[in-house]
Every structure is written in C-alpha cells, then in structure tokens.
Design a protein that fits this description.
By secondary structure, this protein is of the alpha+beta class. It has one domain: Beta Barrel (OB fold (Dihydrolipoamide Acetyltransferase, E2P)). It is about 15% helix and about 45% strand. It is built from 2 helices and 10 strands; from the N terminus they run αβββββαβββββ. A hairpin with a 4-residue loop joins β1 and β2. The radius of gyration is 14 Å and the shape is globular. It starts with a helix and ends with a strand. About 20% of the residues are buried.
Length: about 110
Amino acid sequence: MFNLVDMVFQNNVKNKAISPLKIAIHDLKKTVITGKNKIIYCKAEGSYTRIYLLNHSLIVTKSLKYVDSILPKDTFIRIHKSYLININYITGFKHKNILMRWSNSTGQFIYQI
C-alpha cells in the first residue's frame, strides 16, 4: 500500500523530479521541495541517508543507493559507498583529498580518497 511519501518518491523516479530543477525530499517529519543545486552532499547512515543542503540537513528513510538513483548523474557522483557529492561544490583536490566549499558558517567538506 502506497502512502503519500512513496507516491512523491515514485513521482521523482518516473518523472526525473517534480521539475527539472527541483526534488521532493521527505525527512522524518515533513516533505521539503528544494532545488537540486542546493543539495551539497549525501551521507549514508545505516539504512537512512542524511542529505546536506545549504542551510540545514535532512534525514530520509531511503538508502543512499535509492537517493543516488533519483539525482542527476551529470551533477552527483558516488565517491564512496557512504558518500554522494554534488560536483558543482568541488573547489579542488589536494593530495588525496576532495575539497568542497559552500556559503554558510560550516561551509567546508574535505574527503580523503
């Protein structure tokens, strides 16, 4: 039996998103419609996924594999079994590190390859 959340996620998969630039994300309490460009990276947390946006993060009850399947392949890459990143936020590479930056107070992510 489908509930509203499953219908929203199925709509994203079938139609490649609500619009070409937006996606519906259901966290544990609400459904948020946001721009795909505002997703910085996603991190697997067991069978859940934490999605980091510009201003906050959401935890969803979907696997990282599922989240990867609904995000555009030309913008998001899987750099590890636990991380999916938006390549538009990559600022460089240093030794074996991927450097990312965005504009907020905690705007830095460094991942060691």
